[in-house]
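Curious: explain these tokens?
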Amino acid sequence: DRQTLVAVLQFLRRSNLRESEEILRREARLLGDDLGAAALSPAGAGLLGAPGGDADSTGGEALLSRVTAAAAIAIGGSAATVASSSPGVAAVAAVPPGKGGARARVAGSLGPRLTSRAVSRGRFASFFRLSYKLLPYANVFAVGGGVVVEDQPDVSAVLSAYNQQGDPTLYEEYYSGLKHFIECSLDCHRAELSQLFYPLFVHMYLELVYNQHESEAKSFFERFHGDQECYYQDDLRVLSSLTKKEHMKGNETMLDFRTSKFVLRISRDSYQLLKRHLQEKQNNQIWNIVQEHLYIDIFDGMPRSKQQIDAMVGSLAGEAKREANKAKVFFGLLKEPEFDVPLDDEDEEGENEEGKPKKKKPKKDSVGSKSKKQDPNAPPQNRIPLPELKDSDKLDKVMNMKEAARRVRLGPECLPSICFYTFLNAYQGLTAVDITDDSSMIVGGFADSTVRVWSVTPKKLRSVKTAADLSLIDKESDDVLERIMDEKTASELKILYGHSGPVYGTSFSPDRNYLLSCSEDGTVRLWSLQTFTCLVGYKGHNYPVWDTQFSPYGYYFVSGGHDRVARLWATDHYQPLRIFAGHLADVTCTRFHPNSNYIATGSADRTVRLWDVLNGNCVRIFTGHKGPIHSLAFSPNGRFLATGATDGRVLLWDIGHGLMVGELKGHTDTVYALRFSRDGEILASGSMDNTVRLWDAVKAFEDLETDDFTTATGHINLPENSQDLLLGTYMTKSTPVVHLHFTRRNLLLAAGAYSSQ
């Protein structure tokens, strides 16, 4: 009816809801001037609760009698819908309830004006879909040909009531009703719909607390918190401490939970079942939360099993939307520069035995030729600017290739030897370890704010001579690089002072000239390994910095901290180049992709994100861990990512398809270290449970199910048992493993501090 429409349009205009007004006007085919004319009529005034009109006046009656039985077909699949074509019989349409308690549309007597053509067009359908958010609920009963409306309020109150909360005493009833429905549904739907329990529980509890119904909130929490999955226990502990509205203001995690939508991935069949139930029961408090605070990612096809869902859920904001993992990722490796590999002394010695150099040369050529082919999945060579190779870098590459020629091929039949570096008497509290690529130095970050660097070869650590002594050196001599070093400073250990808090992350530059350290003091420091002094302090994080790492090409580095963002830096800029924001909790670990175009970050929000260095976009979100992430490792070919967390599980991800492809169970405590062997055949994991475990990476990644269906729906089928991938478990006496490193010849180095407990 036109006047009713005009009244609603005026309300929308007054409330500054222009977009809704436009949509409604388009649907009803009303022009702007119609709106002004109709507003002057007494019916219009009565509708809007203006002076001279009330709900019982012409306007109020008009609303009841003229909102015709189009309502009956307005809300697709709405609950109790009664209609009859004979005059004098009322039609009632009950609508999914919203914030102000249950809602309904009342249709007046069905007059001859309601033609089947108008109904079939469904012209009013959109109007009702829009307006049911505005009108509150009046208890409606169809009684033998008439309509009885209980407590029908004034229309102006009607339109403002949508921002009131539901009855706090009914929250428990709503939740237990839904719980009963889900537990009684078919097995195939039950697993999917059970995902609703946790986000609904949290939102309903927070809503009660926010509206200061403290006793109802406490009773609600005590009754239902035991039903939640075990991996949400830490969150529930935080939640239980929020008992007053004031507590919510300072709690960032809970504020995030309120503002970011919790993502659930549900099949269309399960979703329809849920929708029908909520509409039949008029359970509007829950329906409101579903619409406002949850993002339901609906897919077509079979519902997922409990095992498939359990593998993927557990993060602070639910699963990742499927859209989040659709972007193209260049996971291939960059082409290596070509240069000749000269013979060294060892090769020349080998010439005494005939045929030896001949065997070696083709090997080296093959190393060179491998890099000549361009990887089809690699990013363009100049996609991001990378530093040019210096002569010393080229020399190091040559050494690397020679070492690679003598590398041991690992596999199930040929496991690596493991050399364990134990930090004894580390009363300063060892908090971070790193080892140089050529395995010549090891660094420890400590809780007493020191950074300690050791040489692990017979060659001692020396500083450059003072400026006065350097001026005396013959700069043309061949061994000038040796002459500039001061023998008097030679020692096995150098201690670097500068931080004012525990050092949580350390990283050597690929050329071994620099060292990064990050600390609780909010800074990242760059140290020179020529002078063993601090060159720069990078200040950008306002809170503790948990991890930092150099790019495989040097120059760039990444840091992540308690402020929930990761930052990309260049050594010659004191401001960050990129800020990667999106995690809902601390960024606990960071890793560069081997091609340096991407950065992976692990967080206490239990997700792993992959960021594009070029534009700062998040291109992958991986969910599945049940605790904060503490270790990341890319496979040498750049295709896969391994992640470890406090839940003791190691998860394997296919970066190109954005899918979980493996789960390695065995550790009983936090996994702090992960590393692939140089050729990618073996994955080593180190944990707080004092063990190093070796896994068969080749077997884990072969025959992957990465068809379009799996990618689209996330129906991943992980093997029940990962024990057949476990190649070996190696225990320390009482040393948690905090770092792992494969040497260029595939010897595995591990490190940790002995703990006497």
The longest strand covers residues 91-98. Residues 356-370 form the longest helix (15 residues). The chain is about 30% helix and 25% strand. The mean pLDDT is 77.
